[in-house]
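[Meeting: bench + compute handoff]

Bench side (C.D.) handed over the final construct sequence. Compute side (W.E.) agreed to return the predicted structure before the next meeting so the bench team could plan truncations. Sequence as handed over:
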Amino acid sequence: MHLFGEDHQWCPDWPRTESAAAIARLTECSRYVDDVANLTPITGQPFVGRSAFAHKGGMHAHAMQLAPTSYEHIDPNLVGNTRRVLVSELSGRSNVAALIEEHGITDADVTRQVLAEIVRRENLGYQYEAAEASFALVVQKAIRTFTPHFKRIRYQVEVSGYGGAHGQYTKQAIDASHMEYEHSEATVKLALPTGRLIHEVAEGNGPVAALDAALRKALEPIYPNLQDLHLVDYKVRVVRLPEESSKTQLHTMITGTASAIRVIVDSRDRQAGENFSTVGVGTNIIEASWRALVDAVEYKLSRDDARWASDTREGAASWGKPAAMAMGDEPAAAQPSA
């Protein structure tokens, strides 16, 4: 019996037997179908969902380090999926240690530094349970391997809502909530590592879309690989925080109402075939969205830089040349990926 029938071309090159090789591509096929059908992947879907092999509690993460079969009935690799260890309010040192080990770090001091930074950020409203990409950037910053691809000078967002055409109001409008059309425009001014300044303006369907468009307009000519990055989901939540959170020197967060805005952005890297999430927190939805968007861009560029450097080293080794000679004089962070 064939998996998809004799003449089914739904999943290209899919083996026509229920062999181990076919099952190992189950997750790949599921995500391919989601892309073709323009569907949002179900994170909790058995076997192929992003959260099918996720572990949240500290006890779970610790047990997975000692005996993976204690909480997993099969190896995620058998279905082409991967294990995920989440960082949340239920996390312990084991969660952080497991995630840091994925970056090749086993130093206990670094683990403590990252854990302290995560606790500090969670007190400000951040949550990394569903934002592994932002967590990866936190780790890079903690171990001082992060190199920014751009820095903010300023941004400005203008939103206008019109109750009628040509500066007039619509007589048939029931009340002031009536709107004929709206206009959102964002301006960004950025500084590149070379010292070059970029100033761009863009419009969008809402303030966040306009901000995203302006950011892309400024950066895509410098980093063309950002054209493969697409925003697929956007979530907002109001977070209540303790009053002492307002006393931080790094953020101006709390004034009276003891609340902040948390934004989670889900992005798709079509070149890598990868979905990832980033988080931003601020006193308003625009600032929180900006921080989440910046994390998404930086994560994409840093991953591409790492792949580019790895490919360059492999190419240099195959030709018997030192990797440093093959990479040239420009830093990896300043070169866009192919």
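W.E. noted at the follow-up: The chain has three domains: 20-123, 150-222, 231-338. C.D. will use this when planning the next construct.
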